[in-house]
Amino acid sequence: MGSFISSLQPLWLRALSAVQKAPLAGATVAFALSASAPAVAGDGAVTDKPVETVAPDPGDERRLVGYMASSRDDAPPLFERTGNRLEEIRATGQVRRVFLASLPSGFSEISVPAKRKAAFISLVLPLILHVNETIAAVREQLISLRDREAAGVALSDDERLWLASVAEWYGFERVEYGELLKCVDIILPSLAIAQAAEESGWGTSRFARAGNALFGQRTYKPGAHDMVPRKRGNDSIFRVRSYNNLLNSVFSYAHNLNSHEAYSAFRDARARMRHAGRMDGNALVGTLSRYSERGEAYIETLRRIMRTNDLSLFDRARFVDGDDQT
Q1: Could you report the per-residue pLDDT of 176-217, keeping only the tens digit for each?
Q2: Amino acid 102: pLDDT
Q3: 3-class DSSP state for residue 97?
């Protein structure tokens, strides 16, 4: 099982490491946390052979299994084979653990807006749920260690090292449970879907198609593959961050909201909602005026997307596990 610190290594880092090992060249790659789920092979046929298996967490029976799908597949048949049909998700709240690494070719050419939106939500929602699941696992462990300390139980050196690594990841010099727990918390799916839809044009933007960038995150220290906006002003130096897969984009987005000083009001509001026992995506949107230069107009756009697409329904979505996936 390995040492305690190994088993409690921040789960988002383990997930990113696992995803980065997957083959991406020349194909759309989906990841499913289910050893029994069918695979979509390179020719579009369904097979049972996984491309790669990685354990995301010691002692966890689930495995991160990579499935390859032909880049020639258009979105609706692909989503039918993976099993995430939006009407069923709306009705049951159940989502299969299938994670596409990039948008299917031809995705932006889906001519019926309602179909493109449905495919986009079905694609993005599992990614958001997986990121939230890893964050929630770290949060649960933080609460457990906090409560043990409060009860007078001495933590081990490995436990303290793990705590320090989590605190550092979120920008803290030392462990302050109250402030840290404000950061280590989920992003409501309704909010994340709305922002992904707006920032990526429902998956049609160049950044989403070529850079797996769903949330339009800027960087002023560009990497080799980060993208220059075509309408960027002459005096601007920022680029849009690109990612080797969509899951990395969602992890980065969640960490941005959970750690950047610009979104402290978001974290404070979420903490109050957590204490009250009820999360409200529509209210949380109101704290994100600094996410866009459009300010309040941006907030109103997000609220309209959430309302017209009934995105609050997806805040109750959960993964289907075990035998329920077959």
Answers
A1: 999 999 999 999 999 999 999 999 999 988 878 878 889 877
A2: 87
A3: coil
CA diameter of the chain: 62
Residue 171: pLDDT band with limits 50, 70, 90: very high
Higher pLDDT, 10 or 282: 282
Q: Do the Cβ atoms of 266 and 272 come closer than 8 Å?
A: no
Strand partners of residue 227:
240
| Whether 250 contacts 199, CB under 8 Å | no
190: Cβ–Cβ under 8 A, 6 or more apart, which residues?
281, 282, 306, 311, 312, 313, 314, 315
Q: With beta carbons less than 8 A apart as the criterion, state whether 184 and 143 touch.
A: no
Query: pLDDT tens digits, residue range 212-250?
Result: 889 877 665 766 566 565 565 555 565 678 788 899 899
**Separation between Cα atoms, residue 210 and residue 108, nearest integer Å:** 12
Higher pLDDT, 61 or 280: 280
Q: Identify the pLDDT of residue 52.
A: 29
CA 181 to chain centre: 19
**Within 151-245, where are the H helices?**
157-169, 177-183, 189-200, 206-211
CB atoms within 10 A of CB 129: 21
Query: Residue 2 carries which side chain, given as an amino acid letter?
Result: G
Here the tokens at position 223 are 């990497």
**Tokens, residue 135:** 């964050």
User: Any idea how long the chain is?
Assistant: 326
Contact between 66 and 22 (Cβ < 8 Å): yes
- Alpha helices by DSSP H, 38-188: 75-82, 86-92, 113-150, 157-169, 177-183
pTM reported for the whole predicted model: 0.77
With contact defined as beta carbons under 8 Å apart, do 212 and 243 qualify? yes
In the chain, the N- to C-terminal Cα span, in Å, equals 29
Do 279 and 316 form a contact (C-beta atoms < 8 A)? Answer: no
Neighbour tally for 6: CB within 10 Å: 12
